[in-house]
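Q: Convert this sequence to structure tokens.
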Amino acid sequence: MEEETQIKVNSRDAGRGRVTCTIIGPDGQEVPNVEVVDNGDGTFDIVWMCPRPGTYLVDIKFGGVSLTGGPITITVSRGLNFILHSPVYT
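A:
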């Protein structure tokens, strides 16, 4: 069962720029329909349907450049809801 998943990006201190995101699933395929929502306050929400638990490679870019330390690996576990286990980058 797919679960809607959200990652919040805070770019307030970085200035103006476009945020994009590519997510590669445990099967090595790109996750379709990854949406980047500009909240208008310097933050962005990355919304995607997580198809199943596993390890995902997330490449978040600001102004066409991957965030420092990126792409990042996140592990999604099944529980009451899927739980994301990932480092925090600022």
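The CA atoms of residues 10 and 43 lie 4 Å apart.
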